[in-house]
Amino acid sequence: RREKALAAGSGKGMTKDGHPVQLLANIGTAADARKAAAQDVEGVGLFRSEFLFLDRDTAPTVDEQTATYTEVLKAFGDRKVVVRTLDAGADKPLAFADLGHEENPALGRRGIRLGAVRTDLLDDQLQALANAYQATNANLWVMAPMIATRQEAAWFAELVRAKGLPKVGVMIEVPAAALRSFDVLSEVDFASLGTNDLGQYTMAADRMQGELSELLNPWQPALLDIIAYACDGGAKTGHPVGVCGEAGGDPVLALVLAGLGVNSLSMAPSKVRAVRTALALHDYAQCQQMAAAARASVGPKEAREVVLSMADPVLADL
Ligand code: PEP
Ligand code: MG
């Protein structure tokens, strides 16, 4: 039954009754892009651009970046490609952008906070993205990591729009941005939930600490509550909200995320088939009931169990 269910699905992600949930790929290099483009995915939901910047003594030039972005965009034709601007700092330090020692790097000048200090780096990256967009006329969406406030979202949106780029968004991975998602989403076209960091900051648990895996479990009801808040801002503004953290690649959790109102799920391309299958086996109303049941649970284990008990039995094997 498992093989049959998996074999049945192809094409766009949707529930049994046709509610769309875009299925997108997470990529980190141009080689990843070529591989992912050959798969049955609707585009890229997260292009982590860090590989261009890490392990080198000087920043990549605008021309160098333009060439890579153009290659990635060309690989996907008119499919959507969401590029995240540089997310360095904390666990990903840059030799050429050292802001000095920080006691708590995960709470320090990482992500867009580094971009706000090193505006030259951000400006070069946006210029390269604008060049690649002009060369390809691709379906390019650009977003910033670690946005916390409406003011940061407005500032970033202005920079991106000034370059003539068509779509600007933010990652929601700081609880403050999720709680005020209506404000943040009022400034931009879309948001993508980084559930890895959102889990870390919601639970005050270092994502690199294996011993804290129970707190970091993406089924934590508190994380589901905060995702629901973020989706509420999306619904009220009419702007799409996706998930690009690891949570999106779990076929059972994908049902809950869809039920919470998430419009797209981005994951390792190898996981897309199972998630597509899970969605196709359930109606949207069932996903909403699963989301409510998961949020009403006392803990992550119970949340997963109750959702599995409501789902098609084949889900246990996907
Ligand atoms: C996340 O935080 O969930 C995310 C997608 O970004 P990264 O894992 O690159 O921090
Ligand atoms: Mg993150």
Kindly describe this structure.
- The structure is a single chain.
- Helix 3 packs across helix 5 (119-136).
- The chain is an alpha/beta fold.
- The mean pLDDT is 96.
- The N and C termini lie close together (10 Å).
- Helices cover 47% and strands 13% of the residues.
- The chain has an 8-stranded parallel beta barrel, surrounded by 6 helices.
- Strand 4, helix 6 (150-162) and strand 5 form a beta-alpha-beta unit.
- Bound molecules: phosphoenolpyruvate (PEP) and magnesium ion (MG).
- Phosphoenolpyruvate binds at residues 46, 48, 87, 173, 194-197, 244-245.
- This is Phosphoenolpyruvate-protein phosphotransferase.
- Keywords: Cytoplasm, Kinase, Magnesium, Metal-binding, Phosphotransferase system, Pyruvate, Sugar transport, Transferase, Transport.
- The active site is at 244 (proton donor).
- GO terms for molecular function: kinase activity; metal ion binding; phosphoenolpyruvate-protein phosphotransferase activity.
Would you identify the regions where 5 or more consecutive residues have pLDDT less than 50? none
Number of helices: 15
Q: Describe the biggest sheet? A: 8 strands, parallel, barrel
Please state how the strands of the largest beta sheet are arranged side by side: 1-2-3-4-5-6-7-8
